[in-house]
Amino acid sequence: MPLTRLIYFSENQLVPGTKSVLATLGDILSKSNRNNKPLDLTGALVFDNQWFVQVLEGERASVWTTFERIRDDERHDNVVIAEFVEIEQRSFATWWMGLATRHAKTEHLFEGLAAQGRFDPRRMTAAQLLTLTTALAQVGLARQLGSAA
Questions:
Q1: Do the Cβ atoms of 9 and 45 come closer than 8 Å?
Q2: Taking the chain, what is the end-to-end CA distance rounded to the nearest angstrom?
Q3: Is residue 149 assigned to a domain?
């Protein structure tokens, strides 16, 4: 069965309220790890307060079904698919889902790929979004990673 990769970005709609944004992201990560394992989906989620960028990898139907569920989530809006292609191998083979947020240790990665000095995935290619996500993975994704290995 061929592998596929879907990359999308969307605008954050999380508003700090009774639950902090970081706690909500932790919940998303936990649920993603739990849901992705039986479907053999891997990937990473990037969050920078304004934007989400997510890479999903796996069997085409599972990736698409998962994306459709994610797309309808009210915690983000204006979802745009940057890429949906067949791939030879996974970029995130060891994670059911990883999470990277923008902070002091990752700022240089966001700024290095920023268009006109500001991170805006609408001005980036799918290859640039994947480069950012894999670079963040090398720096170290969230401590709460689930291992797919």
A1: no
A2: 19
A3: no
Quick check: is 20 in a domain? yes
Nearest alpha-carbon partner for 135 in 103, 118, 110, 104: 110
Q: Which domain holds residue 46?
A: 3-140
Mean pLDDT by 10 residues, the chain (149 residues): 94 79 87 91 91 96 96 95 97 87 79 72 93 82 44
Q: What global pTM score does this model have? A: 0.87
Number of domains in the chain: 1
Q: Is 15 inside any structural domain?
A: yes
Asked whether the beta carbons of 3 and 58 are under 8 A apart, the reply is yes
CATH no. for residue 44? 3.30.70.100
Within a domain: residue 88? yes
Non-local (6+) Cβ contacts of 90 within 8 A are 3, 5, 42, 57
DSSP string, 42-98: EEEEEE-SSEEEEEEEEEHHHHHHHHHHHHT-TTEEEEEEEEEEEESS-SSTTBS-E
